[in-house]
Design goal:
This protein has 242 residues and is an all-alpha fold. It has one domain (4-240): Glycerol uptake facilitator protein, CATH 1.20.1080.10. 67% of the residues lie in helices and 0% in strands. It has helices at 4-27, 38-58, 68-78, 84-105, 107-110, 116-123, 132-153, 167-183, 193-205, 221-240. The two termini are 32 Å apart.
Length: 242
Amino acid sequence: MHSVWFGEFIGTLVLILLGNGVNAGVTLRKSYAADAGWMVVTTGWAIAVLCGVLVAQAFGSHGANLNPAITLASAISNDNYSQLLSLWSAQTLGAICGAALMALHYAPHWSITPDPAAKLGVFCTNGAIRHPVSNFAGEVIGTMVLVIVAGAIFSHGVSNDGPAAGMGQWLVGSLVWGIGLSLGGTTGYAINPARDLGPRLAHALLPIPGKGGSNWTYAAIPVFGPLTGGALAGVLLHFAKL
């Protein structure tokens, strides 16, 4: 079962199971974590990234992208596109499966949560203020920060040998926590096309009581915004040669 594809699949599954899971715990009624707030959400997502990265690496994906935007940035930076579509498929399928497992875990809570928009927000993102240009720019900026700082963490400029063994994963998790705290309040910081599209597809397909629509009119922003940010960051890293 060790392969780059399977590592990306299972790592993204864990990322979304835990990330959407903290959304559900804070949002759904009769959860012990109900209304716990933004600090809990951002912390939960940071730990979800850490766990997803560790699992992906254990199962064969040393790079542990878990994110089509990071995969695109890496392809541009290294001028190697051979695995791009394969890894995108693993990440998206993993996100769908992770969201489905989360929905099963919280099964009794959907029917007693009355707000369809809140249920959708467990799965995917939306603009806090619906402003497509600003929302798109926010996803571009957040993803560029993710890719550039992650590149810096593992760069020779920081350390010739990279971070100490086992530290890089914690630093990347901390980076995602910081992005959520500083930049996430405007769009919910998808910064990952699979993180938004996979769970949105799961929401559309699953028989969730009173779920309402899946807000496809917004769905392009958290897909193409991060891809744009990843591409721009990839060009910078290509020429900077960190």
